[in-house]
Amino acid sequence: MLGTTAAALLLGTALSACSPTFDWRTVMNNDNGYTVDFPAKPGNDARAVQINGTPMQMAMQTAEAGNAVFAVGTVMLPDDSDATQRAALDFLRAGLARNVGAAPDAHAVQIPLAAGGHTPGLEMKVTGEAGAQHETRIVYARLVAHGRHVYQAAIIADQPLPQDQIDQFFSSFQLY
């Protein structure tokens, strides 16, 4: 009897260790013009933002997996001028960095288009303290303006993630 109980506990432990923390699925967001792989079923949210004094809505899709939150935020701009796009990108970059008390350092990256080709964007990785408990957070993000949309694809984690998980999320992020 003891051997059967021990075997059942061992099997239960082995099965729970095999349950995937990251259950990748492709999500097509036709309303906001992108596709991305999320590590879990995403939820939807929206929040008001003010960019250069202009109120705008930011639509969010987020999924939690392991020790991280994966998110894509989309801001619909009033126009597609370079100045409006630049202001929105600056707002998002500064906001991500400010959330962890870091400098808004970013470098150029190419964001894939679903129809082929690429469009220029920004990539950043910042680390700092967030929240009332001053907990360490790592923010990995890609920012891009495309037409009347500005996108923020981001991962927020409390410890470094394996590069393959970061690559899965960002390489799957494509704009229509």
What does this structure look like?
With 176 residues, the chain is α+β, with helices and mostly antiparallel strands. The protein has one domain (22-175): Mog1/PsbP, alpha/beta/alpha sandwich (Protein Transport Mog1p, Chain A). Helix content is 26%, strand content 47%. The chain has 3 helices and 10 strands, in the order αβββββαββββαβ. The chain has helices at residues 2-18, 82-99, 163-172, and strands at 25-29, 34-38, 43-51, 54-65, 68-76, 107-112, 118-130, 135-146, 149-157, 174-175. The strands form 2 sheets. A 7-stranded antiparallel β-sheet has the order 3-4-5-9-8-7-6, with helices on both faces. It has a 3-stranded antiparallel β-sheet with strand order 1-2-10. The chain is globular. The relative contact order is 0.18. Residues 1-19 have low confidence and may be disordered.
